[in-house]
Amino acid sequence: MCPGQLVGRRLERVVASWHVYGSQAPAGPLDVWLFDCGEGVTHITTKSDWRLSVEPSAPFEGYDMAEAGRVEVRPIDGETPFARHLGETVLAVREEGDADNGLSALEITFESGLVRCASWSGDLSLRRAAVAQDG
User: How many DSSP H helices and E strands does the chain contain?
Assistant: First the structure.
Protein backbone atom coordinates (compact mmCIF):
# COMPACT_ATOMS: atom_id res chain seq x y z
CA MET A 1 0.00 0.00 0.00
CA CYS A 2 1.18 3.49 -0.78
CA PRO A 3 0.77 5.62 2.38
CA GLY A 4 -0.37 8.48 0.13
CA GLN A 5 -3.63 6.56 -0.32
CA LEU A 6 -4.59 7.74 3.18
CA VAL A 7 -5.08 11.30 1.89
CA GLY A 8 -8.76 12.21 1.75
CA ARG A 9 -9.85 9.46 4.16
CA ARG A 10 -11.69 10.39 7.36
CA LEU A 11 -10.44 8.68 10.52
CA GLU A 12 -13.43 6.96 12.14
CA ARG A 13 -11.86 4.55 14.61
CA VAL A 14 -8.46 3.43 15.88
CA VAL A 15 -7.58 0.02 17.31
CA ALA A 16 -4.21 -0.73 18.89
CA SER A 17 -2.30 -3.67 20.31
CA TRP A 18 -0.55 -3.41 23.67
CA HIS A 19 1.93 -5.64 25.49
CA VAL A 20 0.62 -6.15 29.03
CA TYR A 21 2.81 -7.76 31.67
CA GLY A 22 1.47 -8.32 35.17
CA SER A 23 0.42 -5.08 36.87
CA GLN A 24 2.83 -2.92 34.86
CA ALA A 25 1.43 -0.21 32.59
CA PRO A 26 0.98 -1.52 29.04
CA ALA A 27 3.91 -1.06 26.69
CA GLY A 28 3.19 0.17 23.23
CA PRO A 29 1.21 0.42 21.24
CA LEU A 30 2.85 -2.28 19.19
CA ASP A 31 0.45 -1.83 16.25
CA VAL A 32 -2.28 0.63 15.27
CA TRP A 33 -5.11 0.12 12.81
CA LEU A 34 -6.76 3.19 11.31
CA PHE A 35 -10.35 2.69 10.17
CA ASP A 36 -11.65 5.20 7.64
CA CYS A 37 -15.16 6.19 6.63
CA GLY A 38 -15.00 3.95 3.54
CA GLU A 39 -14.48 0.81 5.65
CA GLY A 40 -10.78 0.72 4.78
CA VAL A 41 -8.32 -0.41 7.45
CA THR A 42 -4.66 0.61 7.48
CA HIS A 43 -2.23 -1.27 9.74
CA ILE A 44 0.88 0.61 10.97
CA THR A 45 3.61 -1.29 12.81
CA THR A 46 7.30 -2.12 12.70
CA LYS A 47 8.79 -5.15 11.00
CA SER A 48 11.45 -7.47 12.36
CA ASP A 49 14.04 -5.54 10.28
CA TRP A 50 13.00 -2.34 12.18
CA ARG A 51 11.37 -0.79 9.12
CA LEU A 52 7.98 0.84 9.40
CA SER A 53 5.17 -1.13 7.79
CA VAL A 54 1.98 0.45 6.39
CA GLU A 55 -0.46 -1.99 4.80
CA PRO A 56 -4.15 -2.77 4.48
CA SER A 57 -4.88 -5.37 7.13
CA ALA A 58 -7.55 -6.06 9.75
CA PRO A 59 -6.63 -6.29 13.45
CA PHE A 60 -5.64 -9.68 14.80
CA GLU A 61 -6.92 -11.23 18.02
CA GLY A 62 -5.02 -10.67 21.25
CA TYR A 63 -3.01 -13.59 22.61
CA ASP A 64 -1.41 -14.92 25.79
CA MET A 65 2.36 -15.35 26.01
CA ALA A 66 2.38 -17.19 29.38
CA GLU A 67 5.14 -15.81 31.62
CA ALA A 68 5.91 -13.02 29.11
CA GLY A 69 2.46 -11.46 29.53
CA ARG A 70 -0.15 -10.98 26.86
CA VAL A 71 -0.94 -8.83 23.86
CA GLU A 72 -4.30 -7.06 24.03
CA VAL A 73 -6.00 -5.67 20.94
CA ARG A 74 -8.68 -3.06 21.63
CA PRO A 75 -10.07 0.30 20.53
CA ILE A 76 -8.08 3.24 21.80
CA ASP A 77 -9.33 5.39 24.65
CA GLY A 78 -7.09 8.40 24.16
CA GLU A 79 -3.88 6.39 24.55
CA THR A 80 -2.44 7.31 21.14
CA PRO A 81 -1.91 10.63 19.36
CA PHE A 82 -4.54 9.55 16.83
CA ALA A 83 -7.32 9.92 19.43
CA ARG A 84 -7.57 13.70 19.05
CA HIS A 85 -8.03 13.36 15.27
CA LEU A 86 -11.04 11.01 15.24
CA GLY A 87 -13.57 12.32 12.73
CA GLU A 88 -10.94 14.35 10.85
CA THR A 89 -9.79 13.84 7.26
CA VAL A 90 -6.19 13.08 6.33
CA LEU A 91 -4.90 16.17 4.49
CA ALA A 92 -1.37 15.02 3.66
CA VAL A 93 1.13 12.23 4.21
CA ARG A 94 4.91 12.59 4.24
CA GLU A 95 7.19 9.56 4.10
CA GLU A 96 10.78 9.32 5.30
CA GLY A 97 13.17 6.61 4.20
CA ASP A 98 14.99 5.43 1.11
CA ALA A 99 15.14 2.53 -1.28
CA ASP A 100 18.00 0.87 0.61
CA ASN A 101 16.61 1.16 4.15
CA GLY A 102 12.87 1.26 3.52
CA LEU A 103 10.28 3.37 5.29
CA SER A 104 11.52 4.77 8.61
CA ALA A 105 8.82 7.35 9.40
CA LEU A 106 5.43 8.57 8.26
CA GLU A 107 3.77 11.88 9.10
CA ILE A 108 -0.01 11.95 8.76
CA THR A 109 -1.45 15.48 8.69
CA PHE A 110 -4.95 16.34 9.89
CA GLU A 111 -6.54 19.80 10.16
CA SER A 112 -5.75 20.08 13.88
CA GLY A 113 -2.25 18.60 13.81
CA LEU A 114 -0.17 15.70 12.68
CA VAL A 115 0.88 12.31 13.96
CA ARG A 116 4.41 11.08 13.35
CA CYS A 117 4.77 7.29 13.18
CA ALA A 118 8.32 5.99 13.27
CA SER A 119 10.36 2.92 13.97
CA TRP A 120 12.58 3.63 16.95
CA SER A 121 15.02 0.79 17.68
CA GLY A 122 12.43 -1.63 16.32
CA ASP A 123 9.54 -0.24 18.39
CA LEU A 124 6.61 1.75 17.04
CA SER A 125 6.83 5.38 18.11
CA LEU A 126 3.81 7.70 17.79
CA ARG A 127 4.09 11.44 18.46
CA ARG A 128 1.65 14.29 18.06
CA ALA A 129 2.65 17.68 16.64
CA ALA A 130 0.84 20.87 15.73
CA VAL A 131 0.51 21.97 12.12
CA ALA A 132 2.32 25.22 11.37
CA GLN A 133 -0.11 27.97 10.42
CA ASP A 134 0.68 30.25 7.46
CA GLY A 135 0.45 33.97 7.91
Answer: 0, 10
Q: Is 44 exposed, middle or buried (0-12, 13-18, 19+ CB in 10 A)?
A: buried
d(CA 8, CA 106): 16
Q: Give the C-alpha separation, 91 to 108, whole Å.
A: 8
User: Considering the chain, what is the average pLDDT of its residues?
Assistant: 90
Task: Determine the pLDDT at residue 67.
Answer: 92
d(CA 56, CA 41) in angstroms, rounded, equals 6
Q: Is the dihedral of CA 104, 109, 113, 115 positive or negative?
A: negative
Q: For residue 29, is the peptide bond before it cis, meaning its omega torsion is within 30 degrees of 0?
A: yes
First to last CA, the chain: 35
Q: Who wins on pLDDT, 122 or 1? A: 122
